[in-house]
Amino acid sequence: MSYIKIDDKKCKSCYLCIDICPKKLIKKSEVCGKTGELVAKFEDKNNECLGCAQCALVCPDIAITEVYKS
Ligand code: SF4
Ligand code: SF4
Fold first, then answer.
1. Does domain 3-68 have CATH number 3.30.420.40?
2. Is the pLDDT assigned to residue 25 strictly greater than 90?
3. How far is the CA of 3 from the centre of ligand 1 (A)?
4. Geometric angle at alpha carbon 68, from 19 and 62, rounded to 5°
5. Among 28, 33, 70, 15, CA closest to 4
6. Count of CB atoms within 10 A of residue 4's CB?
7. CB 39 within 8 A of CB 20
8. Distance between Cα 15 and ligand 1 center (Å)
9. b/e for 40-54, b at 16 or more Cβ within 10 A?
10. Is the pLDDT of residue 18 over 90?
11. Phi/psi of residue 42, each to 5°?
12. Is the CB of 21 under 6 A from ligand 2?
C-alpha cells in the first residue's frame, strides 16, 4: 500500500497536487492553511495510490513530505 503525507503548515493551497494526481486522490480539506484557503488532503479509501510521487514533485512548497511505496 502506498501513501503520502501532506504537511498542513507548509501547504499554500495552490492545488497543483490535486490537478496532477493520476488517481484523483488529493482533495481540498476542511482546514484553512497559511494562506487562509483550504489545504489539500489525501484520501485513499480503496488503496489506489501508485506511490508515483508526482504530487510531491509538483508541490512548490515541499509540503508533501513523505511518499511510501510498497
Ligand atoms: S501542491 Fe503543495 S502547496 Fe499546493 S495544494 Fe498541494 S500540498 Fe498544498
Ligand atoms: S503518489 Fe501519485 S497516486 Fe499517490 S497521491 Fe501522489 S500523485 Fe496521487
1. no
2. yes
3. 16
4. 50
5. 70
6. 23
7. no
8. 5
9. bbbeeeeeebeebeb
10. yes
11. -95, 130
12. yes
Copy the grid coordinates of residue 27. Answer: 482533495
Distance 40 CA to ligand 2 centre (A): 13
pLDDT tens readout for residues 27-53 = 999 999 999 999 999 999 999 999 999
Contacts of 28 (CB under 8 A, 6+ apart): 13, 15, 18, 38, 39, 40, 41
54 Cβ closer than 6 Å to some ligand 2 atom: yes
Q: Map the chain to HEC letters.
A: CCEEEECCCCCCCCCHHHHHCCCCCEEEEEEECCCCCEEEEECCCCCCCCCCCHHHHHCCCCCEEEEECC
